[in-house]
Specification:
It is a single chain. This protein has helices at 11-16, 58-66, 75-78, 92-104, 107-112, 119-128, 134-142, 150-185, 193-228, 244-257, 264-271, 287-291, 297-308, 313-316, 322-368, 377-423, 431-438; strands spanning 4-6, 54-56, 88-90, 236-238, 281-282, 285-286. The protein is globular. It has a single domain, classed as Outer membrane efflux proteins (OEP). The protein has a two-stranded antiparallel ribbon. Strands 3-4 form a two-stranded parallel sheet. Strands 5-6 form a two-stranded antiparallel ribbon. With 446 residues, the chain is mainly alpha-helical. It contains 17 helices and six strands.
Length: 446
């Protein structure tokens, strides 16, 4: 591999030394130990003279642009609280318990007996209103007598992933600006003030996006508190373990980007671990058959209507008016068709995420590759400016793709819940099975 010299001041090593990210104590998929800072060997010992220059492979410079992992936000910082504060962590199960307590407690009693949220006493409060009775919940859910908290809970988690994506993008923009500042000071002909200003603007936009993402997350948490009947000023964050299957893969691919000898086949293996959607079966047909084209869509829609017939008074009544039957059937078909669409969209987003990761990797290579022999300084500068623009665009595309995949997962789950209501039945007979159907898991390695 062609080597080239870059004059880097010792300060570059200092600003790259950040603590490693923690992701809910799970080891990222495919991660292997590598130096978090490839300039560690260049740090001078006490009393030693600073090196005059650092010779870097292009792939090593690539790792510098990516930068080290950043620590995950502490709950207090995420909630906008003072350092060290301990907000309440709300799980999905607790959200359902609170929603059921609120739904089954008369409004007058809620005003007279306002009980603060205490995770230690929540189970007892839930039992008092029969929240542990899944059959009763299922009847209320299907009859739409119960306001489902899952949709609001999922909305908060979508914004939580957007916060992570915005932080990663802002961190990479800061890495790029510091590195290009040093390269500009070194007098490298291919680096000019134009590239530095491009990156300065990218950093400002990334920081603004992060601020907006944090504000949106906190506002969504407030909305959830109101929905569940909690004080809006209550310090609260959501249990993020539901996101771990996604963030585990994201952290693994970030680590892969830092490896000077990274191989694309390892990236494919990591992306194979992203959560996969369950193959829903309705009647005698599966959703996957429609998506793969082995049966026509109309056949699947007909199975959905047939599955709903035993649970619908109108569909069971052969004497029901045609208009009434059409309204019911149209509702079933619309939601079933939407489920097909969002399943396909998730698979497309899943594939596009790997493409976005590869694309960013290729744009990094363009930036760090040495120019061809005989290339003029002007041509080098213009080429580098174009490559920097490509990196900025590719990074934005990758982080948006990460958020989009998480959003699409929850969109699928929301449509599934809507379909259960349209069908008048739910394929679960206990709380554990119901919760497991809403939680993503790591895909099996291939």
């Amino acid at each position: 591999m062609v080597r080239f010299s870059l004059i880097l001041v010792i300060g570059v090593a200092g600003w790259l030394a950040l603590p490693p990210r923690q992701a809910w104590s799970q080891q990222p998929v495919g991660e292997k130990p590598v130096p978090s800072n490839i300039l560690d060997q260049e740090k001078p010992q006490a009393g030693a003279q600073a090196p005059k220059a650092a010779e870097l492979e292009p792939q090593e410079l690539h790792a510098l642009i990516v930068g080290p992992a950043i620590p995950r936000l502490e709950p207090a910082e995420l909630a906008g609280l003072a350092p060290g504060a301990k907000p309440v962590v709300l799980t999905l199960q607790q959200a359902f318990a609170l929603a059921l307590i609120r739904a089954r407690t008369p409004a007058a009693d809620r005003k007279a007996r306002s009980e603060p949220f205490d995770p230690k006493t929540l189970d007892e409060r839930a039992r008092r209103v029969g929240a542990d009775n899944f059959d009763k919940f299922r009847q209320e859910f299907i009859a739409q007598e119960f306001r489902d908290p899952a949709l609001q809970f999922f909305e908060v988690l979508k914004h939580r992933q957007e916060v992570d994506s915005a932080r990663d993008q802002a961190a990479m923009a800061a890495n790029m600006r510091r590195l290009f500042d040093e390269l500009l000071k070194s007098g490298l002909p291919a680096v000019s003030r134009l590239q530095v200003e491009q990156i300065n603007n990218y950093l400002l936009v990334s920081q603004q996006s992060l601020a907006l993402s944090l504000a949106s997350y906190r506002s969504e948490v407030d909305d959830l508190k109101v929905f569940l009947g909690l004080p809006v000023s209550m310090p609260l964050v959501l249990d993020e373990r539901i996101l771990v299957p996604f963030t585990t893969v994201y952290r693994a691919t970030d680590q892969w980007q830092r490896e000077p000898d990274r191989q694309l086949d390892r990236l494919t293996a990591m992306h194979d671990r992203l959560p996969r959607l369950e193959n829903k079966k309705i009647g005698g047909r599966s959703l996957r058959e429609v998506i793969e084209g082995t049966i026509p869509e109309e056949q699947f829609l007909a199975e959905c209507t047939a599955a709903a017939r035993p649970h619908s008074a109108i569909l069971k009544d052969d004497q029901a008016a045609l208009d009434d039957r059409n309204i019911v059937e149209q509702g079933i078909r619309t939601v079933a068709r939407t489920l097909i669409v969002v399943h396909k969209a998730y698979e497309v987003d899943r594939a596009q995420l790997e493409i976005a990761t590869r694309y960013l990797d290729l744009t990094f290579d363009q930036v760090v590759s040495p120019p061809a022999a005989g290339t003029s300084a002007v041509v080098q500068s213009v080429s580098t400016a174009n490559h920097v623009t490509n990196v900025i665009g590719a990074a934005s595309r990758l982080y948006k793709a990460r958020s989009a995949l998480v959003t699409q997962w929850f969109q699928v789950k929301e449509v599934e819940l809507r379909l259960y209501r349209q069908l008048g039945t739910m394929p679960f007979d206990n709380w554990d099975a119901f919760y497991q159907s809403l939680v993503p898991v790591l895909g099996a390695p291939r």
